[in-house]
Every structure is written in C-alpha cells, then in structure tokens.
Specification:
229 residues; alpha/beta; Rossmann fold; 2 domains; six-stranded parallel sheet; 9 helices; 44% helix; globular
C-alpha cells in the first residue's frame, strides 16, 4: 500500500525554531537554586533538555529526594516562567533557515506547533520574528497533561489541523519537525512521520526518525516530500 502524501506540518519549538535552550537552562537553574537544588549544564543536557517545566521541576526534586506538593510545583513553574519571560525581552535567535522554511511550508500546507514550552513564551518569540499568524494552532505545555514522549501534544495539534482541512487528514499525512529523542518517540507514537534536525542530538541518537538533517537551511515542502518518499 503506498504511503499517503504530506498535507500538514507540525513543528517542535525549542531546539527546532528558537535557540532557547541556554535560557531554559539558566532560568531553571536559578529557580531551583533558590530551593537549594543545583543543576549543572551537563545535567541539563543529559536529563532536562527533553522535559517541560513541570517535569523538569518534578525530576529535580525527585533526584534531590525532596517532597514536592502541587502548590509548590505551581509556584516554581510560575517563577521559572517569569524569569524566562524577562530573559526573552532582549531577543531570542532562531535557528538558521527556520523562518524561511516555515514560510515556505505555510505557503503549501497548514502548520501547527507542538511544544513543551509554554504557549505565551512561544507566541512572544514568534511575534518578535513576525511569524505570528503563520500557525493554525499552537499547543504548549500548558495545554496538555502529559508531555513528550507521550503523543498527547501531537494529537492535540493534529485535531486542529484536521479541522482546518475539513476533517480530511490522517496522522500519517502529517510531518513533524523535531530535535529530541523524546520528541521523535512521541510523534511516531501519534502515527506521524518525522524529520529530525541535529540541533540538540547527534544523528546517531535520532535514527528512528524517518529522515535526519543537519540544518533547516534550504529546506522546503518539496524537499520534505523528497526525504519522506
């Protein structure tokens, strides 16, 4: 049976579109430091880069053998988000080729974002780069109860895209652009095809994606279809 064509695109945000991981590390580190919990840059890259704020804070407390109730978790998430919001006011760079690729894809098919970042953070950065309005849906960490690698984030984005196309869309007709192992796992669990970019992990860790690229520069809808043929 031939594979279906690509009719919609779903982008991860941090590590694919916006180069924000340094800010996520520093704002998480400073928030946890107030609680007497230390996180090094190496630990962040090894453990936390694939987690949203909720799971990052939970993981840090668990590793420190500390109790963490729901009110405390909410307060720490709000504190980290406030720090991040302050940090992005000075500007956040996009990865090379990301903006051009997004605009090229948007001219060909509807797009959504499925991210572990907070929706307000995503919207603010997209707006600063004049990419607001390009995506039909933005699904952030605050829109789901289970983060990646669970497929919930992707399935929420898919439902919006499916409605945009009047219900005529199958998960396999969606291409996901990801940069992490958890992201690829979640997208595949949602029944979608994945192109991974090596912004955060080497190609050897992303081999379960349908295709792997080293950069988004020069990418287009035609190139996506070629890679997935």
């Amino acid at each position: 049976m031939p594979r279906l064509g690509v009719r919609a695109g779903i982008f991860d945000f941090d590590g694919v579109i916006a180069d924000t991981e340094g800010l996520h590390f520093s704002t998480l580190r400073d928030t946890l430091a107030e609680e007497g919990i230390g996180v090094s840059e190496a630990e962040y890259a090894r453990t936390y880069i694939v987690l949203d704020d909720r799971d990052s804070i939970r993981t840090a407390f668990k590793q420190a053998d500390r109790e963490l109730g729901a009110p405390k978790l909410r307060a720490l998430m709000a504190r980290k988000a406030e720090r991040f919001d302050d940090a992005i006011q000075t500007g956040v760079p996009l990865f090379p080729g990301a903006a051009d690729f997004i605009r090229a894809m948007a001219a060909d098919m509807p797009l959504a974002i499925a991210s572990g970042a907070l929706k307000a953070e995503i919207v603010a950065i997209l707006s600063a780069h004049r990419l607001d309005g390009v995506f039909t849906e933005i699904v952030g960490a605050d829109d789901v109860t289970r983060g990646k690698p669970h497929p919930e984030t992707y399935l929420r984005a898919y439902e919006s895209l499916r409605l945009t196309l009047a219900g005529a869309l199958m998960p396999e007709e969606c291409v996901v652009i990801e940069d992490t192992v958890n992201g690829v796992d979640g997208a595949k669990a949602a029944g979608m095809r994945v192109i991974a970019v090596t912004n955060s992990y080497p190609a050897s860790r992303l081999g379960h994606a349908d295709a792997v690229v080293s950069t988004l520069e020069g990418m287009s809808a035609a190139r996506v279809r070629e890679l997935l043929r």
